Amino acid sequence: MALDVAAERDVRELEERLLTAVRGHPPLLMTPAWFQQRLLDWATGDPDFRVKLLRFVDVLPALRDAKAIADHVRQYFRDTHRPLVGPASELAGTAVFRPVLSQVVRQGVFAMADRFIAGGTPEQAIPNLRDLGKDGVATTVDLLGEETLSEVEANAYLERYVALIRALSAASGEIAPHGERWQGVPPVNISIKLSALTPHMEPAAPEWVAETAMLRLRPLLRTAVECDAFVNLDMEQYRYKDLAHTAFAEALLDPEFRDYPHIGIVVQAYLRDAELDVMRLRDLAERRGAPFSVRLVKGAYWDEEQIVADQNSWPVPVFTDKADTDESYDRCTDALLDGWPHLRPAFGTHNPYSVAQAVVKSRNAGLADRDIEFQMLFGMAEGLRSAVADMGFRTRVYLPVGEVIPGMAYLVRRLLENTSNQAWFNTGSAIPEAPVGGKSLQRTPSPEPADDPLSRIENSAPAPFFVPNVRESMRAALEARTK
Fold first, then answer.
1. How far apart are CA 271 and CA 242, in angstroms?
2. What is the pLDDT of residue 88?
3. Do you find a cis peptide bond into 352, omega within 30 degrees of 0?
4. What pLDDT, in 10s, does the model give residues 380-407?
5. Which residues of the chain have pLDDT under 70?
6. Residue-averaged pLDDT of the chain
7. Percent of the chain with pLDDT over 70
């Protein structure tokens, strides 16, 4: 809905209050947090440094000795003229400095991982959950490294998530935030990806994937019901979206769980069809006859979605301009609030404007402050989180738990998200503009020389079976051949 003049003024005033709170929490000079922020700033403004940093973080766990780490520092960063980084690459060429440099670099990267990851095990993460609870902030816990490659791995993840629910339930008195706003809200809240429950994420067969996923989702939900825990289904890559929605609907409409309210799903606003997703979820909630939660986020796979679409000659499923993503977030906010009370809104954002518009719109729609929730990532936007919690809103932190190797994959994703052109604090970065009206966009390949015969060859795009119309066309064709 378009905001009237008074509502727009309220949004801008609240946004400014939140921005003031964010600016009031800078990291102390020369602390690890300060240096980590410098790395993120350099990666944002220097694409070449960004690639080097991500590659180094990705390979670091495989480097076994000081010489290997020093060699990689020298090879990756020898042409970098950044404070501390450039001199470190020079020291890496001297044998006497290698052990010290190796230890400092490894500890620095792992410290950055600790900024975003709460612990290697649920038990190790409990102190972080307890501290947040004391501040009136709730959590949702995610186990890292979910994508499974075999039935054995999927069974292991089911066991780990069941154990996670029971461990958090045993500590619920310690980790639960207090206050009227949290009455009726389960202190135990986990987030899980569909790829943890089935190794066969086949976009051409969403019904079959949902059926196999339910073999593990059903006992997981039974444990959640037993422990009064909340289960949230995260979104992954676009090609898996229909799989997740189909499995989610299967679980919600199962007679055993049809009335269970503590369940939710994610919508990614950077997708061009995000608003339609919210509308479909509202229809599902009305058909179910019981509400569920929807966490609205911008999306964490922006770079990957563009690269994969480019490789396969598919339309890019995400908005490539930040302003379009922000507008989509606003429209999805409207759709979520229109879906109340069938849909329970949770706004996942680190953008003060997105928080402000959700607050003003929800109040204008007649919702109480305790009817909505704001969610942020562990280790990010702590000033904004504190400001939102101080305003009396339910505030939740997405808190990942995992070991070093899967933790590095998560760290790379967070670095991509933090240094992406889509990040709210990087709006000055140059971004290719998307066409108006949400139309599908394909990148235009560089022109070949006119006399090159290869310039007349175009690869056929593989069938995108994650698109419903494509699946239906294939099914119709197969049925026609069998008649």
1. 13
2. 74
3. no
4. 888 899 999 999 999 999 999 987 666 6
5. 1, 25-45, 81, 83-84, 404-408, 411, 414-456
6. 85
7. 84
Helices marked H in 254-351 — which ranges?
Answer: 274-288, 302-312, 322-338
What pLDDT is recorded for position 171?
96
Tell me the HSE value of 213 on the side-chain side, using a 13 A CA sphere.
31
Terminus-to-terminus CA distance in the chain, angstroms?
49
Question: DSSP letter at 246?
Answer: H
Whole-number pLDDT of residue 32:
62
**376 with 395: CB under 8 angstroms?**
yes
Query: Measured in whole angstroms, how far is the alpha carbon of residue 430 from the centre of its chain?
Result: 23
381's torsion region: left (phi>0), alpha (psi -120 to 50) or beta?
left
pLDDT at 420: 58
By the 10 Å C-beta count (0-12 exposed, 13-18 middle, 19+ buried), 453 is classed as exposed
Each as own residue / partner, the long-range contacts of residues 204-212 (CB below 8 Å, 24 or more positions apart, any chain) are 204/465, 204/471, 204/474, 206/242, 206/243, 206/245, 206/246, 206/247, 206/471, 207/246, 209/243, 209/246, 209/247, 210/243, 210/246, 210/247, 210/249, 210/250, 211/250
Compute the distance between CA of residue 414 and CA of residue 417 in angstroms, rounded to an integer. Answer: 5
Which residue from 416, 324, 481, 387 is spatially nearest to 53, judged by alpha carbons? 416
Closest CA to 173 of 123, 126, 116, 111: 126
User: What does DSSP assign to residue 179?
Assistant: S
Cβ distance 332 to 296 under 8 Å?
A: yes
Residue 261: C-alpha distances to residues 18, 229, 255, 264, 375 (Å): 31, 10, 13, 9, 19
Task: Choose among 340, 391, 1: nearest CA to 179.
Answer: 391
Tokens 């190797």 — which residue? 405
User: What's the token pair of residue 222?
Assistant: 């039974």
Separation between Cα atoms, residue 350 and residue 330, nearest integer Å:
14
Contact 132, 189 (CB under 8 A): no
Q: Is residue 209 within 8 Å of 243, Cβ to Cβ? A: yes
In this prediction the pTM is 0.84
